[in-house]
Amino acid sequence: MNVSIIGTTGYGGAELLRILKQHPEFKIKSIHSTKEDVPIWNEYPHLYGILDKSLKGIDADQIADQSDIVFLATPSGISGELAESFSGKNIKVIDLSGDLRIPAENYLEWYKHAPANEALVEKAVYGLPEWHHNEIASAEILSNPGCYPTAALLSLAPVVKENLINPDCIVVDAKSGVSGAGRALSRTTSYAEANENLRVYKVNQHQHTPEIEQQLMKWNSALKPITFTTHLLPITRGIMTTSYVQLTKEYTTSQILELYNSVYEKQPFIRIRPENSFPSVKEVAGSNFCDIGVHADSRTGRLTIVSVIDNLMKGAAGQAVQNANIMSGFDETAGLGFVPLYP
Amino acid sequence: MNVSIIGTTGYGGAELLRILKQHPEFKIKSIHSTKEDVPIWNEYPHLYGILDKSLKGIDADQIADQSDIVFLATPSGISGELAESFSGKNIKVIDLSGDLRIPAENYLEWYKHAPANEALVEKAVYGLPEWHHNEIASAEILSNPGCYPTAALLSLAPVVKENLINPDCIVVDAKSGVSGAGRALSRTTSYAEANENLRVYKVNQHQHTPEIEQQLMKWNSALKPITFTTHLLPITRGIMTTSYVQLTKEYTTSQILELYNSVYEKQPFIRIRPENSFPSVKEVAGSNFCDIGVHADSRTGRLTIVSVIDNLMKGAAGQAVQNANIMSGFDETAGLGFVPLYP
Amino acid sequence: MNVSIIGTTGYGGAELLRILKQHPEFKIKSIHSTKEDVPIWNEYPHLYGILDKSLKGIDADQIADQSDIVFLATPSGISGELAESFSGKNIKVIDLSGDLRIPAENYLEWYKHAPANEALVEKAVYGLPEWHHNEIASAEILSNPGCYPTAALLSLAPVVKENLINPDCIVVDAKSGVSGAGRALSRTTSYAEANENLRVYKVNQHQHTPEIEQQLMKWNSALKPITFTTHLLPITRGIMTTSYVQLTKEYTTSQILELYNSVYEKQPFIRIRPENSFPSVKEVAGSNFCDIGVHADSRTGRLTIVSVIDNLMKGAAGQAVQNANIMSGFDETAGLGFVPLYP
Amino acid sequence: MNVSIIGTTGYGGAELLRILKQHPEFKIKSIHSTKEDVPIWNEYPHLYGILDKSLKGIDADQIADQSDIVFLATPSGISGELAESFSGKNIKVIDLSGDLRIPAENYLEWYKHAPANEALVEKAVYGLPEWHHNEIASAEILSNPGCYPTAALLSLAPVVKENLINPDCIVVDAKSGVSGAGRALSRTTSYAEANENLRVYKVNQHQHTPEIEQQLMKWNSALKPITFTTHLLPITRGIMTTSYVQLTKEYTTSQILELYNSVYEKQPFIRIRPENSFPSVKEVAGSNFCDIGVHADSRTGRLTIVSVIDNLMKGAAGQAVQNANIMSGFDETAGLGFVPLYP
């Protein structure tokens, strides 16, 4: 099957190239960007001699003619329009941006710019594969979840769905590596200012907040607004969410783990850690895993849930390919068997 | 005034040397360790040509004879015994370890080894200078607060004391640089395993938990056990605590800031950030500042409080010297005017 | 084909697991260490759920019975003895240590401990695949080159063999990430002391010096001792060698590049960069590539040669598998198609 | 004495503020930049509450009226013009840029833009304090040496001046932290691309080359062009130069050290390490020291010289203040007694 990528010069796009280059079923047909006719290795010298393609301009008709799937690795605000340009063109669209994830009114409030076409947003399937396998399988337009929401939702799902927690007191303290901010230059992601530093940003204002809440409320309509905080870590890849919830009654860690294990038993990319073991972000680097550890504290009646992903993999390109596999009828894990790069 | 340091080969000890070498009032009389007769620059080449002293063995009588103050930069379990050996010897003792901070029964539960002499613990003044100035001024034995407790307590004090928050739902999500773990070698603090990583540790089991709770309860007896989580950051210096509390009624961020500003108005080392500004850990590196930023979220009624310190300075050696200044009748800021090293 | 690994708890061993787990031809039969009966994920949590094997003790007969190839990822001093224990046991041995690389008299001088059995050293094939393909193909005992020698030799070979340089003035300034020092704990590789640092070590005394010189002299007997300096970089993976040689007559950069391109034309893991492009270490991270860039300086008549590898891949486990492929008659690149992990 | 700073928003300017804020003799009168009326803490939050000044526009007359010394922490190309605008205005000028360091013809070739006024360049004193104390003492316009040249020249001076080495074979392999590239944003200094990386840049083309050669040739007119290579380290502060020279006859390391010790005996900021000890960059962080270690290799007859500085201190702002001290008749070390920040 032929695939194309738009927005190839960003980190999400580059990671798609890394995965797709080694994928057994997909073939990279063309790569696109606003920079035309530049060999991709000029932008990414690590691809020198590996991928002999040049960036092309964006012509929706031509892309739709030649490819079965197009990945939009473009920023929010641009993806929505691009997705629309592929409407009715017999090509599946997988959008990695936030444009198709939440309704227009929420979008405007949190993203601070105009939302995408409403019908399109409605049509798009929000694709968290562990929970939406069937919808994904038949999707034409897929909205790939955000990096933070992926880590937060996968780790909160069991206790939220099973109603084990107080619905009005969820705190998600999230930490992300710098690549999550994309390849555009900024002061806070410059080396001298990010290194040996930890910075909190968008306190109570991160645009992934409504995305997380929307899905949580689908699982449990009693859910109230959550507290969601984001920190910039001095690492390149990786997200950790440390979530705090109030248990409705006394549970032991091992009871909670039993639930998590049973919920995720068949999921190839979820690894529930045994009692007293917690994942660290490096233990999933370069892979599509989401690792989860929990601890129920009898002193406070609160449960601490730790979840880690590689933000460019399970948090972006890896999950996009996982979705593409499902949409194409392939094994969900095809081309995603990366063992974490450690150390 | 003459001062001596025991436990000079650890990072807290080395930081005491950096401060005291430049201090206008204190003179480093002798430095001590279990390694005898080793020039300090052998252990710390950055001191080559700056401090021409060798490590000596520990003789309490001799130290008490020659010095007015002794700093114990030794590990928990050892400090307590050393402190006792100086009892009645006409020398002020400042202990940087956890040995004199909490009562015996708590100590045993959280530190997992035998507590120090009870009378000594009782006699020791817990010295958070912004809150205990008078007790510190007359202390003979001073227990220097832990790094995490310093950041957490300074940032929680105003809302806890003023009763602005729900006393049974405090979550402190804390992150520390690697130097906080000391100079002893371990796998988790080795470069290849700490770099490009974020690791959660001692989940709901960190020994600083009772220290924080004890002080909070002195300020507000209604306080219930808190949730306290610690993460290991891939940085050398710096702590951030991100704390979550439930406000008892609606407050704006600016109202909360007004409170913080008025509480800390006269404190030279506390910097309350203006609205929409949050401190990052690098902005206090090498200095004795504790910077605090807050945001009240009207969606959830919760307050987010961010606090940063340099764990070796305000979290250890800097605060110890601040206490020594107060105990000696000097200006609290003497020898502590370090401008943060940025970038 | 079945393979076993001894010394699995080190970083070289762990990297072998990462590669072999995904290899199309080799099957990991057993993993060995002095730590017996420990699940490998206890040592390396990133392998949780991926590799369900436990470490076993070392029984040469049993290993030889069950496996076609054994990888020795053990330290120098131990590998030699292990290699000997497999003598005559109908199993191919690939040793990643320095034990079989240089003659006894050199070994003692540079390694400062007793060398391995001389006959074994003589029998072992030094396996730099780009230069020793045929010897490797028929080897029974293979000595895998050191990390620094791999980067240095591959980048110096063309000008040394073709006699383009002054044979008595070669300077190799080498820089390595911390994983090159192995997983044993040490002060210089602890996070707080390696981070934000650059350290020079073993100045003119690194044990890889005779290994480099020996091979260079095989290519050009006029070669004189070289100057070789090693630095510890604050990164986990990656080596760069910056080499300086005096050209015997005036050459342009493009003439030199022509030579390098023709010499390495058919080598799948060597990437010669075009004029004015130089490789950086991150551009080969996680892959088996060795990237080389050169610049001939007309002001000085000197040539600067820059070479980068991932020390755990082309500098250790990757090259070992490349050698195993050749020894087994597989395509040299089997299981080694890793695209560099960037960023 | 009153001092002003132009170009305060760059890292060199910020470091000047850190030093001058704590200086016993100089008072920061005004700070200037193209950004007018912005409080400095907006640009540098670490100065919040420490320095209550706002950036002002640049009015040479006013600055000259109010200040005794002006520091130009502006980029090359701008400094030269600014320096000229202060001509004849009864104010001492210290320029941290490259504009006044080398003659016009060299400047154009290496800097690739128009040089500063020739008379000005000629009048400016090149101020390496360890070697030009007297000229500095009477200078009106001072050209502060570059970061790389400072490390290279201080470490090469003894053997070059004393004619101990072959004058046509000097190789300086230099490595710098990211802050050396300034605060302007660029891809190569963004966190995700600089972290876990080592990059070589401007191979044989760095603009500091002629500055180094010019001074070396003043010391020894037989000197031939040198080879000078620069690498970008994943650290914020620090430079190491590893230099390779050919000794004209056999010298032991201890003989060379004797020379270095005698040459630099009275220099407060030069620390010559004892035999077998080499400095690492972190051992001078935040301080004005230049630490030097050497090793003479009897195998090759070559001498390896390692030199480290903090590029923002001895490589920029620290040395500028050292020069200002000398120009003002103060003790050279006034306000520069920073103990290195370690770890």
From TrEMBL, chains A, B, C, D:
<comment type="function">
    <text>Catalyzes the NADPH-dependent reduction of N-acetyl-5-glutamyl phosphate to yield N-acetyl-L-glutamate 5-semialdehyde.</text>
</comment>
<dbReference type="Pfam" id="PF22698">
    <property type="entry name" value="Semialdhyde_dhC_1"/>
</dbReference>
<feature type="active site">
    <location>
        <position position="147"/>
    </location>
</feature>
<keyword id="KW-0521">NADP</keyword>
<dbReference type="Pfam" id="PF01118">
    <property type="entry name" value="Semialdhyde_dh"/>
</dbReference>
<comment type="similarity">
    <text>Belongs to the NAGSA dehydrogenase family. Type 1 subfamily.</text>
</comment>
<protein>
    <recommendedName>
        <fullName>N-acetyl-gamma-glutamyl-phosphate reductase</fullName>
        <ecNumber>1.2.1.38</ecNumber>
    </recommendedName>
</protein>
<dbReference type="InterPro" id="IPR000706">
    <property type="entry name" value="AGPR_type-1"/>
</dbReference>
<dbReference type="GO" id="GO:0006526">
    <property type="term" value="P:L-arginine biosynthetic process"/>
</dbReference>
<dbReference type="InterPro" id="IPR023013">
    <property type="entry name" value="AGPR_AS"/>
</dbReference>
<keyword id="KW-0055">Arginine biosynthesis</keyword>
<feature type="domain" description="Semialdehyde dehydrogenase NAD-binding">
    <location>
        <begin position="2"/>
        <end position="139"/>
    </location>
</feature>
<dbReference type="GO" id="GO:0005737">
    <property type="term" value="C:cytoplasm"/>
</dbReference>
<dbReference type="InterPro" id="IPR000534">
    <property type="entry name" value="Semialdehyde_DH_NAD-bd"/>
</dbReference>
<dbReference type="InterPro" id="IPR058924">
    <property type="entry name" value="AGPR_dimerisation_dom"/>
</dbReference>
<dbReference type="InterPro" id="IPR036291">
    <property type="entry name" value="NAD(P)-bd_dom_sf"/>
</dbReference>
<dbReference type="GO" id="GO:0051287">
    <property type="term" value="F:NAD binding"/>
</dbReference>
<keyword id="KW-0560">Oxidoreductase</keyword>
<dbReference type="GO" id="GO:0003942">
    <property type="term" value="F:N-acetyl-gamma-glutamyl-phosphate reductase activity"/>
</dbReference>
<comment type="pathway">
    <text>Amino-acid biosynthesis; L-arginine biosynthesis; N(2)-acetyl-L-ornithine from L-glutamate: step 3/4.</text>
</comment>
<dbReference type="GO" id="GO:0070401">
    <property type="term" value="F:NADP+ binding"/>
</dbReference>
<dbReference type="InterPro" id="IPR050085">
    <property type="entry name" value="AGPR"/>
</dbReference>
<keyword id="KW-0963">Cytoplasm</keyword>
<keyword id="KW-0028">Amino-acid biosynthesis</keyword>
